[in-house]
Amino acid sequence: MAEPLNIALAGLGTVGTGVVRLIETNAELIARRAGRPIRIVAVSARDRSKDRGVDLSRYDWEDDPAAMTVREDVDVVVELVGGSDGPALTLVRGAITHGKGLVTANKAMIAHHGLELAAAAEQAGVALKFEAAVAGGIPVIKGLSEGAAANAIDRVYGILNGTCNYILSTMEDTGADFGDVLADAQRLGYAEADPTFDIEGVDAAHKLSILAAIAFGARLRFDAVETMGVSRVKAADIEQARALGYVIRLIGTAEIDRSGGSPSLFQRVRPHLVPFGHPLAHVDGPTNAVVAEGNFMGRLLFQGAGAGDGPTASAVVADIIDIARGEKGATFSMPAGELEAMEPALTGHRLGRSYIRFTVHDRPGVLAEITAAMRDANVSIESLIQKGDPDNDGEVILAMVTHEGPESAVSEAMRILEGSDSLAAQPLVMQIIGE
Amino acid sequence: MAEPLNIALAGLGTVGTGVVRLIETNAELIARRAGRPIRIVAVSARDRSKDRGVDLSRYDWEDDPAAMTVREDVDVVVELVGGSDGPALTLVRGAITHGKGLVTANKAMIAHHGLELAAAAEQAGVALKFEAAVAGGIPVIKGLSEGAAANAIDRVYGILNGTCNYILSTMEDTGADFGDVLADAQRLGYAEADPTFDIEGVDAAHKLSILAAIAFGARLRFDAVETMGVSRVKAADIEQARALGYVIRLIGTAEIDRSGGSPSLFQRVRPHLVPFGHPLAHVDGPTNAVVAEGNFMGRLLFQGAGAGDGPTASAVVADIIDIARGEKGATFSMPAGELEAMEPALTGHRLGRSYIRFTVHDRPGVLAEITAAMRDANVSIESLIQKGDPDNDGEVILAMVTHEGPESAVSEAMRILEGSDSLAAQPLVMQIIGE
């Protein structure tokens, strides 16, 4: 058997210790598959004394992860420090400069600096791989960049954040409101102490921008992802949606828009209504799922565990095995210089059906005002549910679904109603995805 | 850009012409992704004069595909002739001998001769790839052999035959009986004129044996797949299953059985009852889906188009792109010599719930005889449905679901009842899969 592939591991949180455990547990199998053993030579983390439940004494300890990038006995640096910039970015740049292969689970760093890093890795002739950055244990980066490589892909979408999906599907099962479920999720470890990145859709936007670059051969544009999280979804929305035949899911969607002159890039993360018959409607709990539509393969679905130490470690080690096999791959499925610069797509002309939830004061004339605004904006209403009695504040929920029409019309209706004292809160608009 | 990768295409049926169309349509994109153009230099088929809807005049025509294997300008031979032996096998052996890479969609050939061919390809230092042999456009070979490579996988199962799935889900939707739906499927092109390989489960068994070898690192044992097709499933079974909360799907399951001394190989293709809540219950029409369970990644699901010229061509060309990128891969995820020889697993000790359908003569004592046989074999009955009125022959359908127990007990009950003149036909036993 060939020489081992030597790796150094920076960051020993749940994913880092998961990687250690995986490499130790499956060592023999991995060596058979990779054609050579994978050997951890050095590890690094902030706190050396912390008990992580794995025996690290057989590996060299580096107080400064930068030391790993200059060790002659290290082939691949595994960055699991986290954070889009700071120490993680310094480490990755250093590793590439020193000719080390680089494996990371860091979606924020790839979303912000992926193009620069890919170009640097190409120039240095080293691998830069990040399967674990998107959808945890699901090999969707590989699935798109290699499995679907023969296809022009015009659309990729899916459930990219396990925390949000856990919250929405638990709200669905229990009827509880957002805040209560979030608190439970934090207690159970499904949501972080500061859950902002997850629940406001930023984490999903990181992942979506990476998928879009790979699927479309487009330059990464994380800055252009239109993002709305799940914190405004109420139990009442989930109840109305169910009555109408839908579940609510936080969906990231990226499309190439060819309606203008040159192709432009549509990227959106938002809660959507998903019809019961759609495969994504059955994705519950912290599961992730990604759908890609290719011009020859048709619709392809990947589904699995979107987070957790085991699944994420599985993706990290799959990347390491690729490198051990001598299969570096192109970072975004093609050389960075080949990626096409695309402007963000306009969205007003997009056709679709929308769900709109109003919280209104319970008094005469309110319904007339809202329906008049819809008429004036040329929005055609398919169905409307006013939910029983007003609450203690004298407010009622009014939910409607529109017929298919341009998004600009719905925006216009919202503009007309802006500041109206009939409304007790800002309306919530959610798109409905097709079968 | 680097030199083109030159390919020669043997077999110009729907998949072969699909490959030509794909390579022509997506040529520019493929060159960006592969880092070099993919160029068809020669084609071959039995009938040169046939109109295939694509212009083949720009490619050399070879009457004898063997000529492709000795052309100096050919890097990769694509075998789409079909058949486990005969001309396809001769062509593939010849290509490998002459140092050509080989891409094929031929599941029968790989199931029967995969080990021999993998060893030959390794020795010659050429790629042997067959993504299109399993589950059409779904990159499941790559997903298991690379994406899930860090995991010990103990179980892989799924819907592997689009024809059977189309028939079962259409029976479900229409209430029609097997024969009528099959005739429709043949008219619509979803089933072949001779559908035996599909409906008797042989095609699914070919695919399952390939998946098992890759997932488990086991030597291929197509001969040991226990196979039963869908031709005995009646509309009444589907109706009963639905009433009990299940759909019926032809499922191929492979597992490593560690209950004995050394690990043994369980491989079975059979119609199963699938609970509504399971992801496979929502796989309708000619779609395929594969689930793999790994010790770190958890449960992973791949779903997509299982057949058709576009999806199959997508998988064939993905393999060609891998070769163009210099990524040959190990044929069964590890060198052929590393694959472990496993004996077929015994099945009697397997625990599970079963559905049993009896067709009985409508007369006193029949139910007593059947339930006594169950008692004597120690099979515990969970529920029992006797369907209304006898048909014209005085026969009635009696369906039951057992509590969990060993398969040997159900077999013993069937043995006791064998030859009983209460039974108008051989009972049908189907396993029920868990959530």
Structure description:
The structure is a homodimer. Chain A is α/β, with parallel strands linked by helices and about 425 residues long. Chain A has three domains: about 5-135, NAD(P)-binding Rossmann-like Domain (Rossmann fold); about 140-305, Dihydrodipicolinate Reductase, domain 2 (2-Layer Sandwich), CATH 3.30.360.10; about 350-430, ACT domain (Alpha-Beta Plaits, 2-Layer Sandwich). Helix content of chain A is about 35%, strand content about 25%. In chain A, the strands form three sheets. Chain A has a six-stranded parallel sheet with strand order 3-2-1-4-5-6, with helices on both faces. A six-stranded mixed sheet of chain A has the order 8-10-9-7-11-12. In chain A, strands 13, 14, 15, 16 and 17 form a five-stranded antiparallel sheet that branches. In chain A, a hairpin with a 3-residue loop joins strand 11 (about 285-295) and strand 12 (about 300-305). Chain A is elongated and about 80 Å long. At the A-B interface, helix 1, helix 2, helix 5, strand 12 and helix 11 of A face helix 1, helix 2, helix 5, strand 12 and helix 11 of B. Strand 12 of chain A pairs antiparallel with strand 12 of chain B. Chains A, B: This is Homoserine dehydrogenase.
How many beta-strand segments of chain A? 17
- Average pLDDT of chain A: 95
Distance between the termini of chain A: 50 Å
Q: Globular, elongated, flat, extended or rod-shaped: what is the shape of chain A?
A: elongated
Give a brief description:
With 435 residues, the first copy, chain A, is of the alpha/beta class. Helices cover 34% and strands 24% of the residues of chain A. Chain A has helices at 14-25, 27-34, 86-97, 107-124, 140-147, 162-174, 178-188, 196-199, 202-216, 235-244, 309-324, 366-376, 407-417, and strands spanning 5-10, 38-44, 60-61, 76-79, 101-104, 128-129, 153-159, 226-227, 246-257, 264-275, 287-294, 298-305, 351-361, 381-386, 395-402, 405-406, 428-432.
